[in-house]
Amino acid sequence: MSLTFCEQLIASATARPGKIAMTRLGATGSESTTFGSMLDQIRSIAWRLEKEGINFGDRVALMGENHPQWAMIYLGILYRGAVVVPLDPAGMIETLSAFVENSEAKRAFIAYGSLDKFRAVCDRTGKSIPIVAFGVNDLSQVEKNGHELFSDWAGTPRPEGFDDARPPAKAGDMAILIYTSGTTGVPKAVPLTHGNIVSETDAVEESMGFTEKEIILSLLPLFHAYSQIVNLWIATLIGASVIYITELSSEEILRGLKEGRVTALTGVPRLWYLFHKKIFDGVRAQPMLVRKLFSWMMGANGFLRDRLGINAGRLFFRQVHEAFGGNLRIAASGGSSFDAEVARDFHKLGFTMLQAYGLTETSGAATVTRFEDNRVGSVGKPLPNVEVKIDEPNEEGIGEVLIRGPIVMPGYYRNPEANSEAFTEDGWFRSGDLGRFDADGHLYITGRKKTSSFCLRARTFIPKR
Q1: The pTM is what?
Q2: 1-15+32-169 CATH choice from 3.30.300.30, 3.40.80.10, 3.40.50.12780, 1.20.1270.10
Q3: Comparing 451 with 353, which gets the higher pLDDT?
Q4: DSSP readout, 67-105?
């Protein structure tokens, strides 16, 4: 019998208790958490949830910016067998209120900077939801409002035998409830199961070549499924390390890449476009001879990679690679289509830009490009055990992308009308996106039939210049 997500989490952390699991880089230094300490805090959170009356399947809200404590709370909720309801800290109070009401969240973990907003949500809904504050830098303000602290929860002593008991959740049990729409009508909530998570993690890990040696920079907000795939699911289960930064600025991102010796970075296209602009703005500022030499080397490395399978990017463009920390191995983009010319430029510079396509409803990625089969412009081939087909293709082979497999959600939460529209009679999920396959089975997204829930909002990911 295959292990559940939480059982794999335990096995991973137990196998490498002294290895660094998470590091938060701040202006005055860094703070790291080992896998052993992480598991200890996760278990304490899980026990405290049980002690405070959070039952199996109860929903627990989680809102705040990326932080190691966010990750441990998330995993602690799953360990308990409760359901994480991740919320956007920049969301409108009206929208957040609708999500909290629909989910019937019984407790909330809220970052210090989001406490006022969540209190406004409670006032609007008329609900008195107990709050645990995390990422706290002003204890007096938190204590004045009667909130509990993450540090107390994560340090809660556990009863004898708790650590030996199997976490209660099984593959078919709900793990996460992610909201994808506004306040008009019934909120559209995507429930992902523990089995969805394991299926997605196994498939992406196999297809994109993640290993326990990876050091991952966490940039995309963790309330999105796309970010959770790499930063939480894969990193936790394979034993990779995750770097968190305190500010989403170009300077802090580059500092994180360099000081963290980052090997893997996932982002939306806009992030990579900003990196691209920064590189080529710098080139354009150079004398003509340097610009011509740079252009020649790009052409030469493109030829070497395409014709001979040789990548001289680190040799030709040492300064560019060092700006990314000098160790970047996996560069991935998802969330919307990626400009083919920008992808070609990164290819010529010596980076392999992997593409992913999927929706929240498919646990994130449903197709990815591979290192050994990375066709520029496509979003790759289906993940292992995932089926993708084009519905009613026109003369150009374009039609709606349909997806089926163990990564697909069981159905929208308490929304039968949305479910009847989202699935075909034989169980295929309608993505709402238009696409086509080439002769070799690579998928190309050509447009949208409807708004895709996995088209992440660029606002959240635009670094400060």
Answers
A1: 0.93
A2: 3.40.50.12780
A3: 353
A4: -HHHHHHHHHHHHHT-EEEEE-TTS-HHHHHHHHHHHT-
